[in-house]
Structures are given as C-alpha cells and as structure tokens.
Amino acid sequence: MLVLTTKTHQAEAAVEQWADVPVHDRDGTVLGSAAELLPIFTALNGVASEEIALRYFERVFAVCVWFPTVMTEPGEVIVRTLPPRGIFHVGRYGVSSDPAADTKLVASIGEEWAAAEFQVIRSEDVLRWKYRKLLANVGNVLQALLGDTAGAEDLRRAAEDECREIFASAGIAFAGDEESQAAWGALSIEPVPGEPAQLGSSSWQSLVRGHSTIETSYLNGEIALIARRIGRSAPLNAKLTALARRAAREGLRPGSLGVEDLRAHLGRV
C-alpha cells in the first residue's frame, strides 16, 4: 500500500511519480504497476486529493487526519498528543468491486497502526469527515498570515460561517460539532518540553519553512470553488486564499501582517 502525505497542491506530482512504478513479487518478477495493484491512502487536508489519485490508481482510500504535529526542521517531527497520538477516519473513495476485501484491509491497517498508538476508524462515508476537517482548516490561513491570531477570532468565525453557508447551499453533508467532539475529543494535546507553546497549523508550517507554495487554495480556495459551481460566491475565503498565495510567493513569514492590516485587505475595517 501507499500512503500519500504531501500537501494537496503537491499530490498530483507525487501520484504521477508513483503510478507507473513496477511492483515485484518476492522472486523479482514484475506483476504490474503500483497504480494497478497497490491501494493508495490519501491522508491529506482538503477534499481534492482523492479525485487526483483516482485518475491514476484503481483503489483509493480517503483518510481524514486528526493528528496535531509540527515539522519546521527537516527530520524533526513534534508530536503534541498523548495516546492515542492521532485519529484517522478511513473509507473507500469511489465504488468498490470488493467491499469485503476493503473492510479487511482497513481492519488490518487499524491493527498495525495501533502499535504506533494511532486509532483507525472505518467510515462508510469518509468524505463527511473530510468536509468537517475542511471546515476546521479554513482558519489555518489566519495563523499563517498573522502568527498570533489574538484579536482575529471574528475573522475565523466569519470564514467558517461562510463555509457552512456554502456547504448548506451545495447540499454537502459533514460531521456535526457534537459528533466531531465525540470522535476527536479523545486526543489530549499537551505542550512539548523545550518547544514554544505557539506551534501552528500545516499552513503556518509551510511559511515558517519558507515554502513558495501553500495548501490554502485547496482549503479556503475549495470553499470558493464550491460556491462558484453553484452560482454563489465566497468572497472572504477567496480573499484569504489570494493573500496566502501572495505570502508564499513573496517569502513572507507568519506575523508579516497585523490584524488591522489584514482587516484592511479583507475590507472588514
């Protein structure tokens, strides 16, 4: 199996790189390609990577990742949770020709990943969880731009409210607040000795590492895309997406904008 853990905007390049890699048996005989034979698990934020993978791979499994970690230095991953370390909702994307085999595969992964103190939950409708995670991720951009989001709570709520409204208009189902709390509430996030308390989201990490690209186009930008498909608009999330692209393109770091500067850019002074 393959587990895809890039950012969504990097997914297609990774999938294309692996799709035609030959798969060998124990004797070295080529049995076929990775895309033909290996299941791929898309453990990424957003809801676009599954469709990207399905263009190449026969068997795609969507993974909703709830795993608060930070990587700002190569080779160093800061895990901030007590056991369970992370919770993963997993389910087949697309129509399966062998549901029993899929169920068995996900169960076996759950047993193996439990050794690393992860919890795997099989879901018949895993996209409900990925859309719920997408709602949670629309605030990532604020931390990436501001660093310290104190005083920007209303902007986060406004971005989330716009997201909820677009989901409702588009008929998109997602896990509710109580359901999410029941599933994800088992995670206990603790400070890591020797590390600052302000350790940010995946989008924040991209700017800290100085990347010239950022995942926001598949988070806030996804909300804008959904809105445009149904003849609506999501102006706040669209503007936040553009600001994130600019920050990555210009090499800006978290904190490059103050709250009032951001309000001015968003027209919410």
Notable characteristics:
two-stranded antiparallel sheet, five-stranded mixed beta sheet, single chain, N-(1-d-carboxylethyl)-l-norvaline Dehydrogenase, domain 2, 269 residues, 45% helix, 12 helices, alpha/beta, 17% strand, 11 strands
> Distance between the terminal alpha carbons, to the nearest Å?
50 Å
Low-confidence stretches: none
Strand fraction: 15-25%
Q: DSSP helix count?
A: 12
Count of all domains = 1
CATH level-4 homologous superfamily: N-(1-d-carboxylethyl)-l-norvaline Dehydrogenase, domain 2
* CATH fold label: N-(1-d-carboxylethyl)-l-norvaline Dehydrogenase, domain 2
Structural class: alpha/beta
Radius of gyration: 19 Å
Mean pLDDT score:
95
Question: Briefly, what is this?
Answer:
It contains 12 helices and 11 strands.
Structural account:
InterPro entries: 6-PGluconate_DH-like_C_sf (IPR008927), 6PGD_dom2 (IPR013328), KPA_reductase (IPR013752). It comes from Kutzneria viridogrisea. The chain is an alpha/beta fold and 269 residues long. It has a single domain (2-266), classed as N-(1-d-carboxylethyl)-l-norvaline Dehydrogenase, domain 2. Helices cover 45% and strands 17% of the residues. The strands form four sheets. It has a five-stranded mixed sheet, with helices on both faces. A two-stranded antiparallel ribbon has the order 2-3. α7 (153-170) packs parallel to α10. The longest helix has 18 residues, at 153-170. It is globular, with a radius of gyration of 19 Å.
